[in-house]
Design a protein that fits this description.
The protein is built from nine helices and 21 strands. By secondary structure, the chain is of the alpha+beta class. The strands form seven sheets. Strands 3, 6, 7, 12, 18 and 21 form a six-stranded antiparallel beta sheet that branches. Strands 8-17-13-14 form a four-stranded antiparallel beta sheet, with no helix packed on it. Strands 9-16-15 form a three-stranded antiparallel beta sheet, with no helix packed on it. A hairpin with a 4-residue loop joins strand 15 and strand 16. It is globular and about 110 Å long. The N and C termini lie far apart (119 Å). The relative contact order is 0.09.
Length: 388
């Protein structure tokens, strides 16, 4: 048998592919090495495919890290921006807001709750500086000056008030004094109430007679408003704020304020506010106190709503169309306005204001859901207007 010499040389290309070169191959060897060549080609293809997958995976991981970093940066910038806006609205510093936020986290109080309380405090201190509002008596009792407190950064302002309450007020009365300064009832955070839904409810009895005619009778003289704030929850922080608010009010036990963004002003949404928006009475030379009212009119029919919870700092009064900057005071817990001197006989008394609805939770249970993306939701959070 003739001797057949075969020389095989393996050549590496680019560190990934291997090429077999055959020299002086006989006819039988050529077939065998043909199979080897095909197998090497398939191996090269598999190696190339693996390399492509590895490259794509590395690129995806890099993109994911970059996206996560960008999200963290955006979140941080949004937090700083929110703190800056809140500081500007409250007339304080970002450092002061950050101090309060850290204190709130340690105490288990949401920043939205702190924000609402500090807004109420700022409004009430401004009223007290002018000698009006519920905070004036509290500050006198604590030996504090409204003007001095307004000049302090917010965290120092709150600290000074808390220290004075602890020093001068018995433990049993501290909650009431704090309520005069920070707000007695509290309110659902604005960012949640904006997304809520609801409206007025009436109770009407209808009796259908055998003839097909019917008799109708209004069981309620006034409507009662219902709302559901579950639709305003968009983030896990919103959910936590609502749960904390629910627990602090012992579910249905305690009432609070609710801002209905569809109806919270004395005028139409498209109109500019003016102290002549709503007539609330006519002077007779003797009566000094009048209740804030809002009328709903359609054609010849109308209904008058008593406003029990006007928003502090929003009330303006006019006598015979002339705005009265001084000479009167308002109770934002009852909706009454008292003039220092009784308006004369026949004088038209009008007012402009924003207002909240006095409500309570209409459930003793919250069905809370938190999904894997940390987005929270509650099936329903019904609120019911409190009527007295």
């Amino acid at each position: 048998m003739a001797e057949k010499r075969v020389s095989v040389r393996l050549v590496a290309e680019g560190g990934r592919q291997v090429r077999a070169e055959l020299e002086r191959v006989g006819e039988a060897g050529a077939r065998g090495f043909g199979r080897l060549s095909r197998e090497m080609d398939m191996a090269n293809a598999r190696v190339a495919a693996f390399a492509r997958r590895a490259t794509l995976a590395a690129a995806a991981a890099t993109a994911a890290l970059a996206a996560a970093g960008a999200a963290m940066i955006r979140s941080g910038l949004q937090t700083v921006d929110a703190q800056a806006k809140l500081a500007q609205s409250l007339g304080t510093t970002v450092a002061s807001i950050q101090t309060l936020e850290r204190a709130g986290e340690l105490a288990g109080v949401s920043m939205s709750g702190i924000e609402q309380a500090t807004k109420d405090l700022t409004r009430r201190l401004s009223q007290a500086a002018a000698g009006t509002g519920p905070a004036a008596d509290a500050l006198d009792r604590l030996g504090l000056s409204a003007s001095d407190l307004i000049a302090l950064p917010l965290d120092q302002r709150v600290g000074a008030i808390n220290a004075a309450i602890a020093e001068f007020v018995p433990a049993a009365e501290r909650a009431a004094v704090a309520g005069q300064l920070f707000g007695e009832e509290g309110s659902i955070p604005d960012n949640i109430s904006r997304g809520a839904r609801g409206g007025p409810e009436r109770r009407t009895q209808i009796v259908e007679l055998a003839s097909g005619d019917e008799e109708r009778n209004a069981s309620w003289a006034n409507s009662r408003w219902r709302f559901d704030v579950a639709y305003g929850i968009r983030r896990a922080d919103d959910l936590a704020a609502v749960v904390a608010f629910f627990e602090a009010r012992n579910a249905r036990l305690h009432g609070f304020r609710y801002k209905d963004w569809a109806d919270y002003r004395s005028c139409l949404p498209s109109q500019a506010v003016a102290p002549t928006d709503q007539p609330i009475g006519t002077g007779n030379g003797a009566v000094t106190t009048f209740a804030l009212l809002k009328r709903y009119t359609s054609g010849a029919q109308s209904w008058t709503r008593a406003i029990a919870k006007p928003a502090a700092g929003t009330i303006r009064m006019a006598l015979n169309g002339v705005e009265q900057v001084t000479g009167w005071s308002a109770d934002t817990t009852t909706g009454s306005v008292t003039f220092n001197a009784a308006p004369g006989a026949g004088v038209a008394i009008t007012a402009d204001f924003e207002f909240d609805a006095p409500v309570r939770f209409d459930t003793d249970t919250l069905d809370v859901t938190l999904d894997i993306e940390r987005l929270g939701s509650i099936t329903s959070i019904p609120l019911l207007e409190i009527r007295r």
